[in-house]
UniProtKB/TrEMBL annotation:
<dbReference type="Pfam" id="PF13561">
    <property type="entry name" value="adh_short_C2"/>
</dbReference>
<keyword id="KW-0560">Oxidoreductase</keyword>
<dbReference type="GO" id="GO:0003939">
    <property type="term" value="F:L-iditol 2-dehydrogenase (NAD+) activity"/>
</dbReference>
<dbReference type="InterPro" id="IPR002347">
    <property type="entry name" value="SDR_fam"/>
</dbReference>
<feature type="domain" description="Ketoreductase">
    <location>
        <begin position="7"/>
        <end position="187"/>
    </location>
</feature>
<comment type="similarity">
    <text>Belongs to the short-chain dehydrogenases/reductases (SDR) family.</text>
</comment>
<dbReference type="InterPro" id="IPR057326">
    <property type="entry name" value="KR_dom"/>
</dbReference>
<dbReference type="InterPro" id="IPR020904">
    <property type="entry name" value="Sc_DH/Rdtase_CS"/>
</dbReference>
<keyword id="KW-0520">NAD</keyword>
<dbReference type="InterPro" id="IPR036291">
    <property type="entry name" value="NAD(P)-bd_dom_sf"/>
</dbReference>
<protein>
    <submittedName>
        <fullName>L-iditol 2-dehydrogenase</fullName>
        <ecNumber>1.1.1.14</ecNumber>
    </submittedName>
</protein>
Length: 260
């Protein structure tokens, strides 16, 4: 359908998982994509897309926690494909542990990426849109963890709650400029990161490897964990003109796990 034909989409945390799946969906819809991750060279998972879409896709390395690096990244992206019209703001990290044992280093690492990094990228993209007098769409990645607390996941839950709150505030600030800001709150999604999450739960809850992953999938009303591709439809919808009258919302894509 090419609902995003010729639009320039910037995707952070797109070296794999959800970001990679959304990049592939955007490319199929005709977008030109600047995909960003921390690695100096494009991750191997991106190779098939780079080969298939050589004129629509390029890779950029940036640390979203660094304001100067974000500025350089955006300048390179604009130099290749012009002004950014769609932001899929996905870069994030996960960690967990008992609240009373959690240290400041864990807190700072999670908030530096999930909140500060998210904010820096969003702010600079929005500034460029406003200065150019261009409309656009921003999609921040929240989580079902941002809808509720979890005893072992306090910092991550709080960071994703902050993403939801920043999304609402930014949407209200940008509404006079015709720029929409929304978020997606995935549930449990079967990505390589979940092997790390499962291992952490196994350690802290004294479970067998794989036990937590199986349990959370079965607890989803639709009966399974999500896949990265399950997020693609929502990401296309919120980036496209089909959602032209939607802003300040956080869309749950979680198989029915959270009802709000």
């Amino acid at each position: 359908m090419h609902r995003l034909a010729s639009r320039h989409a910037l995707l952070t945390g797109a070296g794999g998982g959800i970001g990679l799946a959304v990049a592939e969906a955007y490319l199929a819809e005709g977008a030109r994509c600047s995909v960003v991750d921390l690695a100096a060279a494009a991750p191997a998972a991106l190779a098939p897309l780079l080969a298939r879409y050589p004129d629509q896709l390029h890779y950029l390395s940036a640390d979203v926690r660094d304001a100067a690096a974000v500025d350089r990244m955006l300048a390179l992206a604009a130099g290749r494909f012009g002004p950014v019209e769609i932001l899929f703001n996905n870069a994030a990290v996960f960690d967990m542990g008992p609240l009373l044992e959690s240290d400041l280093a864990m807190y700072e690492r999670i908030f530096d990426v999930n909140v500060k990094g998210m904010f820096l990228v969003m702010r600079q993209v929005l500034r460029a849109m406003v200065e150019a007098g261009r409309r656009g769409a921003v999609i921040n990645l929240a989580s079902q963890a941002g809808r509720r607390g979890e005893a072992l996941v306090a910092h991550y839950c709080a960071s994703k709650a902050a993403v939801i709150s920043y999304t609402q505030s930014a949407a209200l600030a940008m509404a006079p400029h015709g720029i929409r800001v929304n978020a997606i709150a995935p549930g449990v999604v079967d990505t390589p990161m979940w092997d790390h999450v499962d291992a952490l739960f196994a350690r802290h809850e004294h479970l067998q490897p794989g036990e937590k992953k199986r349990a959370v999938g079965l607890a989803v009303p639709l009966g399974r964990m999500g896949t990265p591709g399950d997020l693609a439809g929502a990401a296309i919808f919120l980036a496209s003109d089909e959602s032209a009258y939607i802003t300040a919302q956080t869309l749950n894509v979680d198989g029915g796990a959270v009802m709000s």
